[in-house]
């Protein structure tokens, strides 16, 4: 029996940030001069993904809490460098107004979007990846989501670090080839290595190769911490000292890096339409915001599925 088409789970913030920085504001403005570069780029990315991956379902995950209190309580440095002086995330002034417009267009087209109070888009994606009928394809430029890859379901990560046109279609073998660890150990590996963009310090002096070797030998961070208490566990003296100095960090870091898989989410209409849900509203938005080309490409991509 032929496998059903995949559901595409879209990391919306990852894609619209990339669109914003990838398209000059001067090249995409509404009649009143407002930039719409993130909206146009995001819609074109969705159209491209629909054409090339041929999904029958799609959900765009949103950040309702980009820096959840429960992660900050575990690790105060988590994303601390991205907090604006007045609070909230540092986001370009001309990007913030485009996000509600993206949601309006998604509603008019009929593409589901969802977020959850107290959770990041990553957590929404993680929960959907284990609750939606497979096959599942997660679309993101966030390396943390390599941990969701699961050949058994299957769940793949379409990694767009080089852009949607050059996405990397990643299964477990691809994660192993890239990082030297299986996908289900990526969170432990990432905690050891650290990630400055998320305020994760990692273990001083431990890079990707050492982190991968540690995970391969001891299984996970819990295994590493247990081995630290064994004098004959095989650590080089310098490495043992580095890990011991980071013990407090290592005790909490995996919980910070690990994506939640149990976010409470509403029932979602995930089926992709073959025509806009509200064509009149879509026409209004396209005319008001100078989005006709991008809207048409998205509509055409949907129609090709019929």
TrEMBL record:
- One MF annotation (Gene Ontology) recorded for this entry: exonuclease activity
Among InterPro entries, the record links this protein to: 5-3_exonucl_a-hlix_arch_N, 5-3_exonuclease, 5-3_exonuclease_C_sf, DNA_polI_H3TH, FEN, HhH2, PIN-like_dom_sf
Q: Which residues form the 5'-3' exonuclease domain?
A: 3-273
User: Which UniProt keyword terms apply here?
Assistant: DNA-binding, Exonuclease, Hydrolase, Nuclease
Q: Does the keyword DNA-binding apply?
A: yes
Identify the domain of life: Bacteria
| Entry annotated with the keyword Disulfide bond | no
Q: What does this protein do?
A: 5'-3' exonuclease acting preferentially on double-stranded DNA.
Query: What is the protein name stated in its UniProt record?
Result: 5'-3' exonuclease
* Taxon lineage: Bacteria, Bacillati, Actinomycetota, Actinomycetes, Micromonosporales
